[in-house]
């Protein structure tokens, strides 16, 4: 396709409509290392590269849209989390962020554990050789079948989410002649999202058992009475895309408070606490996430301090980062199909995917950035909205971003930080085929989840 100029659209900051952007970046060709994985750069011809491979070559070989996952970056993040917490703690990767058999193997090799929350995730983990004892099973409504499989294969822990589930898991384990290690998930009355946290009244959601009103203490009482389960600790997960440690501080204090209550009432010190995941990543240059070693230091200090005050032995800590490991490791590569300038508003750039490969913008009003990837451009910045090909006006991938004004059909554009909750939440809306995930490392690219085909779609449609 030719790069013909299109009618002049909105270009300059002084004519821009309201939106989620500040000023255009100084250099549209620059790739902020905060939002791109570590092996991403630009070749001398201007094309974006990952692991030394130009995206133009990747697009030829694998097509678009496609997710490209930087294996080196993924492994480095695993190692950073593992080393930050050390041998005295456990890091569980939250599989729901993105799970495939290759990823399970990398996690295993890097010494991480794995959270799953469905039979499908459990099957993926086991089929790639993750030892069952390194798997934690989550979810607010695990089916009897899922519980039975989890107990039978011997998962390291099941995180109990309700009074009914305490009994259900205990009975199933007893029937199978097992004693299942469990944690109880509590809601500490803190909810944290993005840059803020709220410390009251957030018991009004479906997960966990509230600490308030003594409910969690009652859950511990019940769990301790049942033979089929062994209560090893308390679990808390306060939210997602969190940048501020204040929410964890309150959560840790309240969980340790429960441990002290349990000690006073039952004379036992539960050996573990799990503080969940939710650590934020940079989707745009405005985000400033903490490093794993800073997070580990802060959490260890908080827990030690609270335990000292309560005269408790410091329990073994676990954390469950999902997004913070896989989010920054991948970008989505799209081909531009149409460019539609709306006078006085912005220019709509349509790509060959959309809400079926990234629902986060439509679902959470998420922010992303985007770069022209197949070439460098010195054209002036143009306010753009990157939209998909679905029959839905909310089908937006990037709400507001600057692209060079000469963007044209056939150009490749890349949206960084799409490793988490994009492929895992992908759909077949409009019978669009879900994109592949391609792992790239040291100059080599290989498909780890293949592109869906029309045969795949038709195979499920049994007429
Ligand atoms: C979703 C979830 C996580 C991971 O959250 P991220 O924001 O991806 O780090 C960890 N633990 C539990 C229980 C979760 O539900």
Notes on the structure:
The chain is α/β, with parallel strands linked by helices and 463 residues long. The chain has helices spanning 55-62, 71-85, 101-109, 119-127, 144-153, 163-175, 215-225, 246-266, 292-310, 323-326, 360-364, 454-460; strands at residues 40-42, 48-50, 53-54, 66-70, 89-94, 113-116, 135-137, 157-160, 180-187, 191-193, 196-198, 209-210, 229-235, 239-240, 272-274, 316-319, 330-341, 347-351, 371-372, 381-387, 396-404, 412-416, 437-441, 444-449. The chain has twelve helices and 24 strands. 28% of the residues lie in helices and 24% in strands. The chain folds into two domains: 13-70 and 328-460, Lyase, Ornithine Decarboxylase, Chain A, domain 1; 138-321, Alanine racemase (TIM Barrel, Alpha-Beta Barrel). Pyridoxal-5'-phosphate (PLP) binds at residues 94, 96-97, 115, 138, 237, 240, 276-279, 320-324, 420.
What's the SSE blueprint?
Layout: E1 40-42, E2 48-50, E3 53-54, H1 55-62, E4 66-70, H2 71-85, E5 89-94, H3 101-109, E6 113-116, H4 119-127, E7 135-137, H5 144-153, E8 157-160, H6 163-175, E9 180-187, E10 191-193, E11 196-198, E12 209-210, H7 215-225, E13 229-235, E14 239-240, H8 246-266, E15 272-274, H9 292-310, E16 316-319, H10 323-326, E17 330-341, E18 347-351, H11 360-364, E19 371-372, E20 381-387, E21 396-404, E22 412-416, E23 437-441, E24 444-449, H12 454-460
Parallel strand pairs: 4-23, 5-6, 5-16, 6-7, 7-8, 8-9, 9-12, 9-13, 10-14, 13-15, 15-16, 18-20
Antiparallel strand pairs: 1-2, 2-3, 4-17, 10-11, 17-18, 17-22, 19-22, 20-21, 23-24
Helix pairs in contact: 2-9, 5-6, 7-8, 8-9
């Amino acid at each position: 396709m030719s790069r013909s100029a299109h009618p002049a659209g909105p270009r300059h900051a002084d004519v821009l409509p309201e939106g989620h952007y500040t000023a255009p970046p100084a250099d549209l060709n620059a790739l902020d290392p905060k939002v791109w994985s570590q092996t991403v750069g630009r070749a001398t011809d201007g094309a974006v590269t990952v692991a030394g491979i130009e995206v133009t070559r990747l697009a030829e070989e694998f097509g678009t849209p496609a997710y490209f996952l930087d294996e080196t970056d993924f492994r480095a993040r695993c190692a950073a989390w593992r080393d930050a917490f050390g041998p005295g703690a456990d890091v569980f990767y939250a599989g729901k962020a993105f799970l495939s058999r290759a990823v399970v193997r990398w996690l295993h090799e890097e010494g991480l554990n794995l959270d799953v929350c469905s039979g499908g995730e459990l099957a993926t983990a086991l089929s790639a050789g993750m030892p069952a004892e390194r798997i934690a099973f989550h979810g607010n409504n695990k089916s009897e079948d899922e519980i039975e499989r989890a107990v039978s294969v011997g998962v390291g822990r099941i995180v109990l989410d309700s009074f009914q589930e305490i009994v259900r898991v205990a009975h199933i384990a007893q029937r199978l002649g097992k004693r299942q290690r469990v944690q109880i998930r509590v809601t500490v009355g803190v909810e944290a999202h993005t840059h803020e946290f709220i410390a009251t009244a957030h018991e009004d959601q479906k997960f966990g058992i509230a600490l308030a009103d003594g409910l969690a203490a009652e859950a511990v009482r019940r769990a301790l009475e049942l033979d089929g389960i062994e209560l090893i600790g308390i679990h808390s997960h306060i939210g997602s895309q969190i940048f501020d440690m204040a929410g964890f501080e309150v959560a840790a204090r309240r969980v340790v408070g429960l441990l002290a209550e349990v000690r006073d009432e039952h004379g036992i010190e539960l050996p573990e606490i799990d503080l969940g995941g939710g650590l934020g990543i940079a989707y745009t240059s405005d985000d400033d996430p903490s490093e794993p070693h800073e997070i580990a230091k802060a959490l260890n200090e908080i827990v030690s301090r609270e335990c000292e005050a309560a005269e408790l032995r410091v329990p073994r800590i676990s954390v469950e980062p999902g997004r913070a490991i896989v989010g920054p490791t991948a970008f989505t590569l799209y081909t531009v199909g149409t460019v539609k300038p709306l006078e006085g508003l912005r220019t709509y750039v349509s790509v060959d995917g959309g809400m079926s490969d990234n629902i986060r913008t439509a679902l959470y009003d998420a922010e992303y950035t985007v770069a022209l990837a197949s070439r460098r451009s010195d054209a002036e910045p143009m306010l753009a909205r990157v939209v998909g090909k679905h029959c839905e006006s909310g089908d937006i991938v990037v709400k507001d971003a600057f692209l060079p004004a000469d963007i044209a059909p056939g150009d490749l554009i890349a949206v960084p930080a799409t490793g988490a909750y994009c492929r895992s939440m992908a759909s077949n809306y409009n019978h669009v085929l879900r994109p592949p995930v391609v792992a790239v490392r040291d100059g080599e690219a290989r498909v780890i989840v293949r592109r869906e085909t029309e045969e795949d779609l038709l195979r499920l449609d049994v007429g």
